[in-house]
UniProtKB/TrEMBL annotation:
Any Pfam family hit: Mur_ligase_M
Gene3D superfamilies attached to this UniProt entry: Mur ligase, C-terminal domain, Mur-like, catalytic domain, MurE/MurF, N-terminal domain
Gene that this polypeptide is encoded by: murF
Biological processes per GO annotation: cell division; cell wall organization; peptidoglycan biosynthetic process; regulation of cell shape
Function field: Involved in cell wall formation. Catalyzes the final step in the synthesis of UDP-N-acetylmuramoyl-pentapeptide, the precursor of murein.
Record EC number: 6.3.2.10
Location of the Mur ligase N-terminal catalytic domain: 33-100
Organism listed in the record: Gelidibacter sediminis
Residue span, Mur ligase central domain: 114-293
Molecular functions (GO terms): ATP binding; UDP-N-acetylmuramoyl-tripeptide-D-alanyl-D-alanine ligase activity; UDP-N-acetylmuramoylalanyl-D-glutamyl-2,6-diaminopimelate-D-alanyl-D-alanine ligase activity
Protein name in UniProt: UDP-N-acetylmuramoyl-tripeptide--D-alanyl-D-alanine ligase
Pathway linked to the protein: Cell wall biogenesis; peptidoglycan biosynthesis
Source organism superkingdom: Bacteria
Length: 445
């Protein structure tokens, strides 16, 4: 070995100058938790100074220490004031590598899930079922991206037996990257739909990108859970042996059938009737996934039933609320063309005299935005679901000849023109992308 070569000298410099993973992990173990936001610093946490388009976390390192952080991980040596500042080459990569390193130290199995719709609800149902038998840890909220997944892994500890990791993506290769970080042992895809078309380009692009989870699991000979009634999913796992199938077929490993979806989803699990508190037939698959996975992991059948029947949706996801004389389906957690159409189909089936809709723009559709929003308007014209209030720039640019389809470019426009006296003794559907924040409509009733 040439000890005088430039490559050796640079490598030696990097090894001693930058924090190596074993040393960084030792510092991590001294801390209570991981933080990436100085507004949420917890005492004795380890702070990662991440960078964004409009900020440099290194500039907040001193503030993090002053607020109670035990260590700060930075990638600009100019901000190193003392031994509490740990210098790495790249803070984001260090966070991700640390998460993977921690994951390898834990003697646990990881169940990963992704999909176009229903990820968060499915994750919560899975956790409700699996926690009946195992010590579980699941993604908090929607921390499902290149930062959220590492944070999810780093909050797991040795007592955990099964980790549930939600994975989101809006561009190709993101799921592949998240799989390399989390290294799942099991996985499932809720569905393939028209979501994030701006990044994926088409539904075919969605299928290919989401299936990166299946690709990882197949490469490492891990187990896949799949809905046997979904031909797109069956196509993706053709001839793969390590598959646990659920669906309506008598040959399914877990036989599940939808009984009704009004007002809530009821289904059978191997002839046993289960009554949920989730509205809409689109939630049947989310429930079915949780039941099937629970059966695979040998959770007691009565415990599975109890977990499903006592689960109550929160955070604007398929909630049925009452306010005054009105009953409301609050589904404003997020929206894309697939989930929007599913919500409308479900609302159409409701046997109610006076129905009103509040629909907000669907984001991240790229060049297809105009077509997809017009498709929803065309659906409303063909199906009389009641008075529809469409909110947002995309819906505002659509065309309609119906007097019962009202368009508002902004939420303030809706607020200024809405006659709350007309919103009495009605059944409402509120659905839109998260950025529309349509839960504000509740304050107008």
């Amino acid at each position: 070995m040439n000890f005088k070569s430039p490559n050796f000298t640079l490598g030696l410099f990097c090894y001693f100058y930058f924090m190596n993973m074993e040393s960084l992990y030792a510092h991590f173990l001294e801390c209570t938790t991981v933080c990436t936001d100085t507004r949420k610093i917890e005492k004795d946490c380890i702070f990662f100074a991440l960078k964004g388009d409009n900020f440099d976390g290194n500039k907040f390192a001193e503030q993090a220490i002053a607020s109670g952080a035990k260590y700060c991980v930075i990638d600009d040596k100019n901000y190193k004031l003392d031994a509490r500042y740990l210098v790495v080459e790249d803070t984001l990569k260090a966070l991700q590598d640390l998460a993977t390193y921690h994951r390898t130290k834990l003697n646990i199995s990881i169940l990963a899930l992704t999909g176009s719709n229903g990820k968060t609800t499915t994750k919560e149902l899975l956790n409700a079922v699996l926690t009946k038998k195992y010590h579980t840890s699941a993604t908090l909220g929607n921390l499902n991206n290149h930062i959220g997944v590492p944070l999810t892994l780093l909050q797991m500890h040795q007592d955990i037996e099964l980790g549930i990791v939600e994975m989101g993506a809006n561009h190709p290769k993101e799921i592949e990257s998240l799989c390399k970080i989390a290294r799942p042992d099991y996985g499932l895809i809720t569905n393939f739909g028209k979501a994030h078309l701006e990044g994926f380009g088409s539904v075919e692009g969605v299928v290919k990108a989401k299936s990166e989870l299946y690709d990882f699991l197949k490469e490492h000979e891990k187990t896949i859970f799949v809905n046997e009634d979904d031909p797109l999913q069956i196509k993706q796992i053709a001839d793969y042996p390590h598959v646990y199938k659920f669906g309506s077929s008598k040959w399914s490993d877990a036989k599940l059938e939808l009984l009704k979806s009004q007002p809530y989803v009821s289904l059978t699990f191997n002839t046993t009737v289960i009554n949920s508190k989730l509205a809409g037939s689109y939630n049947f698959n989310n429930i079915a996934v949780a039941i099937a996975v629970g059966a695979y992991f040998e959770v007691n059948k009565e415990d599975i039933i109890n977990a499903i029947e006592t689960y109550t949706p929160t955070n604007n996801r398929s909630q049925i609320l009452e306010k005054g004389s009105n009953k409301i389906i609050m589904d404003a957690y997020n929206a894309n063309p697939t989930s929007m159409l599913a919500a409308l189909e479900n609302f159409k089936q409701l046997q109610q005299d006076h129905k009103i809709l509040f629909l907000g723009d669907m984001f991240e559709l790229g060049d297809t935005a105009k077509i997809e929003h017009q498709f929803i308007v065309d659906y409303l014209e063909k199906n009389n679901l009641g008075t529809a209030h469409l909110i947002g720039k995309n819906f505002y640019q659509t065309t309609t000849k119906k007097n019962n389809i009202l368009k508002f470019e902004t939420f303030d426009d809706l607020k200024s023109n809405l006659n709350s006296d007309e919103l009495q003794h009605s059944f409402l559907l509120i659905k839109g992308s998260r950025g529309m924040a349509l839960e504000r409509i509740l304050d107008l009733l």
